[in-house]
């Protein structure tokens, strides 16, 4: 047996152990006994594996990762090294005893190896158990950590919630909670008492009606010494009432021991301490003698505000409002008892209405009653006054939402009483009753103002004139034109009603000038005589007060609407006028409208002048604006009746007006040579200022080529927003005409050089009674600029459902949210087609706001 090669003691490096094992394996007899070796193999970056390699019948056994690997390697080397030489001995028959000893040694070695395997397996089992325990501990630790985090978060949330509550309590520290605490900045804080009692008790009410502390945080005293010097005696009496109780005039102040505190945590004992301290201070400050004599003082509520620390616009009386008891005493009550008081007075009024066989019309905001005796009259007036006096609203609108009969009045003592009389709706008896009603309701409590609306000025009698003067007339409306015989009556109203502020008169244009001058002269005379006058506004409107934008329906007469604003205590006034001239008949030189142009032409800001606008009116307008300047903001003119001098005057008036004014020129019957020449002349002068252009005439070839030659491109009209071309009846457009239409409806071309102002985009396009070829329609529709377009009018044109489809396809292909289109107009026979209905449905789906209609004349002014 050869001795094994020596090796250093201690652990063997992984590479060396692996090599010796391999050699031993190659030299060993596969049929011999089991020979074991150890090797270390690196697995991963941080772990080493101890591997027990068994050669022989047994398969390789690997021992997993374990920190004891190095120690086990040392142990295995010590066990294996003495028997390495013996492993190479091959037993034969007849071997010597020494051979048997070697075999015995091999048997011992196998026992040792088996023991080693058992020890290793035990160690590995302990290692697995240890790892499982460590995993369990780790999981328990993670669960515990998560629980701690949740608990910590919950505690933080609770802490934040408590801090928020503390902040809210700090912010609400000054709010009323039932405690009468002493202010930090002052020894005293002012609180109010609600003077409720029998007068605030409504039928069936469950509320208590004993004097109590108003639910308000109270007021700090800004000037404590001055406050007690002025109000101290009165306050001392109040403190005695609170301490000992009192009863008078239906009001009960319970003694302090019986006082019920509905809110807060302040006890009667604590309140008693505060009241006693206040009484002691006041008695000392006021030097009250043992006899109990208190100096007399008058409470001046007007100065109370100056002693309190309140906001600039704050209320000085807390939750209290002043009302009137049934005994006609003025009392201050809280909002809750004020509502009870109103319920009581309204209930009383309803009972009186029912006793007179009256009726209530809640939807119309009115009542009707039948008064047959003086007793009922007095009861009704008294109840009506109670409703008015128990209302704190300063609104000028009657309300019947809850029908508490505030439809008669919702005004406080300092507010304006608004009374409307429409004499045209009443017979004389009804009006007498109405006047008596108003006289009583207003006279009992000193009304501050009144509004009267009458159908005609002549309907007012001398008694009526005296009545409205006593009621402090503030606003007078007269619907129909006052005649010349009414001038003196109008002057009398102005002179005898110095509180009149607004005068509205509906009158025909032939009387507008005379009425305006009469009011102006009367006012100037009163100012000259230093008579009081409050008139600030005069509105001279059309008959029946019809708005000026609706007067175009009456084409057989002129319409004038003027508003004058007067300066306070000065004769100066400002004036604005809108005029719509008649569309039929001529306007003679002595017509009242000519006089208006002559005197107040400079006040015109809107003028709608159809074909009746003549040279004389143009010259009057020019003279007026030349001397006083022009205010024209909107001018619509059809110069059909103008000659060369009239065109020159109109051009001068336009040039004098503001550069931002809206100018609409309407040229009709352009087939007539004289009208064509006038149109070209005026349009050539105003082309850079025109906003709306309307061209029509027949035959089309008689005038359109001239326009195309004079104004070939869209850039000729930089401010044009509405473009309308029409014919008296259908006319076919040639290719040249179509190209000009395409140029006019297209988007403005990009400027080659920077311009002061960009060109305006079209907001309206009208092509009425024109006939285009299908390809021409396609060219026009594809050229339309939809950026600012509001409406398209193709009434009378030869457009078909095919053109409607082209238009809809063009619209829905764009960003419809950015479009402003709201109207399309086609002939009825086009829209009744099934194909057209499908196109309309497609457009509605994308742009439901667009209206597609037929018939009627399109009002192009709405697109401006």
Mean pLDDT: 72
CATH architecture title of one domain: Alpha-Beta Horseshoe
| Low-pLDDT windows of residues | 1-105, 173-186, 262-266, 289-294, 391-447, 856-864
The CATH superfamily of one domain is identified as: Ribonuclease Inhibitor
| Morphology | flat
Strand order of the largest sheet: 15-16-17-18-19-20-21-22-23-24-25-26-27-28-29
- Please give the alpha-carbon distance between the first and last residues: 123 Å
Helix content: 25-40%
CATH topology-level name of one domain: Leucine-rich repeat, LRR (right-handed beta-alpha superhelix)
Using only C-alpha atoms, the radius of gyration works out to: 53 Å
Could you explain how this protein is built, in words?
This protein has 864 residues and is α/β, with parallel strands linked by helices. Among the domains are: 14-88 and 103-136, no CATH class; 139-165; 189-345, no CATH class; 661-748 and 759-855, Ribonuclease Inhibitor (Leucine-rich repeat, LRR (right-handed beta-alpha superhelix)). 39% of the residues lie in helices and 16% in strands. The strands form seven sheets. Strands 15-16-17-18-19-20-21-22-23-24-25-26-27-28-29 form a 15-stranded mixed β-sheet. Helix 14 (644-656) links the parallel strand 22 (634-637) and strand 23 (662-667).
Show the helix and strand layout.
Layout lengths: L13 H14 L7 E9 L3 E9 L5 E5 L3 H12 L16 H75 L17 E2 L2 E2 L17 E2 L5 E3 L2 H21 L1 E3 L2 E3 L14 H19 L21 E2 L10 E5 L5 E5 H21 L3 E3 L4 E3 L5 H16 L38 H16 L6 E5 L7 H9 L2 E6 L8 H10 L5 E5 L2 H20 L8 E5 L17 E8 L6 E8 L11 H9 L3 E6 L5 H14 L5 E4 L6 H13 L5 E6 L5 H14 L5 E5 L7 H7 L11 E11 L2 H11 L18 E8 L2 H10 L7 E3 L7 H12 L10 E3 L2 H4 L2 H13 L4 E3 L11
Parallel strand pairs: 15-16, 16-17, 17-18, 20-21, 21-22, 22-23, 23-24, 24-25, 25-26, 26-27, 27-28, 28-29
Antiparallel strand pairs: 1-2, 2-3, 4-7, 5-6, 7-10, 8-9, 11-12, 13-14, 18-19, 19-20
Helix pairs in contact: 2-3, 4-5, 6-7, 10-11, 11-12, 12-13, 13-14, 14-15, 17-18, 18-19, 19-21
């Amino acid at each position: 047996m050869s001795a094994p090669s020596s090796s250093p003691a201690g652990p063997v490096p992984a590479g060396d152990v692996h090599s010796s094992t391999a050699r031993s394996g190659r030299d060993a007899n596969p049929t011999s006994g089991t020979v074991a070796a150890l090797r270390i193999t690196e697995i991963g970056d941080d772990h080493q594996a101890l591997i027990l390699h068994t050669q022989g019948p047994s398969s390789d056994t690997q021992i997993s990762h374990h920190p004891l690997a190095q120690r086990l390697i040392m142990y295995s080397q010590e066990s294996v090294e003495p028997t390495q030489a013996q492993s190479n001995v091959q037993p034969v028959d007849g071997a010597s005893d020494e051979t048997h000893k070697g075999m015995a040694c091999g048997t011992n070695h196998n026992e040792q190896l088996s023991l080693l395997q058992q020890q290793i397996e035990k160690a590995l089992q302990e290692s697995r158990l240890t790892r499982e325990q460590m995993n369990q501990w780790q999981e328990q630790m993670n669960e515990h950590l998560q629980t701690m985090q949740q608990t910590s978060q919950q505690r933080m949330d609770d802490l934040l919630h408590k801090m928020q509550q503390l902040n809210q309590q700090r912010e609400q520290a000054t709010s009323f909670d039932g405690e009468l605490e002493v202010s930090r900045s002052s020894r005293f804080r002012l609180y109010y008492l609600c003077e409720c009692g029998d007068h605030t008790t409504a039928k069936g009410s469950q509320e208590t009606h004993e004097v109590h502390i108003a639910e308000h945080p109270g007021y700090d005293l800004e000037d404590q010494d001055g406050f007690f010097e002025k109000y101290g005696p009165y306050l001392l009496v109040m403190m005695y009432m609170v301490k000992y109780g009192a009863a008078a005039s239906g009001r009960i102040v319970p003694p302090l021991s019986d006082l019920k505190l509905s809110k807060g945590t302040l006890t009667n004992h604590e309140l008693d301490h505060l009241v006693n301290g206040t009484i002691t201070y006041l008695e000392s400050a006021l030097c009250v003698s043992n006899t109990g004599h208190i100096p007399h003082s008058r409470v001046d509520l007007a100065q109370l505000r100056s002693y309190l620390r309140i906001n600039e616009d704050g209320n000085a009386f807390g939750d209290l409002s002043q009302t009137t008891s049934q005994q006609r005493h003025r009392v201050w009550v809280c909002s809750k008892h004020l509502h009870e008081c109103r319920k009581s007075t309204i209930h009383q009024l309803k009972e009186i209405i029912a006793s007179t066989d009256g009726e209530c019309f809640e939807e119309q905001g009115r009542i009707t009653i039948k008064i047959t005796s003086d007793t009922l009259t007095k009861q009704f007036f008294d109840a009506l006054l109670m409703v008015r006096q128990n209302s704190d609203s300063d609104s000028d609108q009657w309300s019947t939402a809850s029908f508490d009969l505030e439809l008669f009045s919702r005004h406080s003592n300092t507010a304006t009483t608004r009374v409307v009389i429409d004499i045209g709706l009443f017979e004389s008896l009804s009006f007498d009753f109405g006047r008596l009603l108003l006289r009583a309701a207003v006279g009992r409590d000193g009304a501050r103002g009144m509004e009267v609306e009458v159908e005609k000025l002549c309907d007012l009698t001398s008694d009526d004139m005296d009545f409205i003067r006593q009621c402090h007339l503030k606003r007078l409306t007269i619907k129909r034109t006052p005649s010349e015989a009414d001038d003196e009556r109008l002057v009398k109203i102005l002179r005898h009603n110095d509180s009149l502020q607004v005068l509205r008169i509906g009158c025909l244009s032939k009387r507008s000038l005379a009425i305006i001058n009469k009011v102006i002269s009367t006012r100037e005379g009163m100012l000259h005589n230093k008579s009081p006058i409050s008139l600030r506004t005069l509105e001279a409107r059309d008959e029946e007060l019809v708005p000026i934008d609706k007067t175009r329906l009456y084409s057989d007469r002129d319409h004038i609407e003027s508003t004058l604003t007067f300066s306070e205590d000065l004769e100066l006034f400002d004036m604005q006028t809108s005029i719509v001239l008649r569309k039929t008949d001529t306007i003679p030189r002595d017509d009242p409208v000519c006089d208006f142009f002559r005197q107040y032409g400079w006040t015109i800001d809107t003028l709608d002048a159809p074909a009746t606008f003549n040279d004389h009116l143009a010259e009057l307008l020019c003279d007026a604006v030349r001397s006083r300047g022009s205010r024209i903001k909107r001018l619509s003119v059809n110069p059909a009746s103008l000659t060369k001098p009239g065109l020159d005057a109109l051009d001068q008036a336009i040039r004098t007006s503001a550069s931002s004014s809206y100018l609409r020129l309407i040229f009709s019957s352009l087939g007539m040579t004289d009208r064509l020449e006038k149109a070209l002349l005026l349009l050539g002068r105003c082309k850079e200022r025109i906003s709306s252009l309307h061209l029509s005439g027949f035959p089309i070839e008689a005038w359109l080529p001239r326009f195309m030659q004079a104004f070939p491109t869209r850039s000729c009209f930089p401010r044009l927003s509405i473009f309308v071309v029409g014919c008296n009846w259908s006319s076919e457009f040639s290719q040249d005409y179509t190209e000009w239409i395409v140029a006019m409806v297209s988007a403005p071309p990009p400027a080659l050089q920077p311009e002061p102002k960009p060109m305006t985009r079209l907001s309206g396009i009208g092509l009425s009674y024109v006939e285009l070829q299908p390809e021409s329609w396609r060219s026009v529709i594809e050229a339309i600029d939809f950026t600012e377009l509001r409406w398209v009018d193709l009434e009378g044109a030869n457009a078909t459902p095919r053109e409607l489809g082209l238009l809809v396809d063009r619209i829905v292909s764009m960003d419809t949210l950015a479009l402003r289109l709201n109207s399309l107009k086609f002939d009825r026979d086009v829209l009744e087609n099934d194909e057209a209905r499908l196109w309309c449905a497609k457009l509605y789906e994308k742009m439901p706001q667009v209206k597609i209609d037929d018939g009627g004349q399109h009002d192009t002014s709405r697109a401006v």
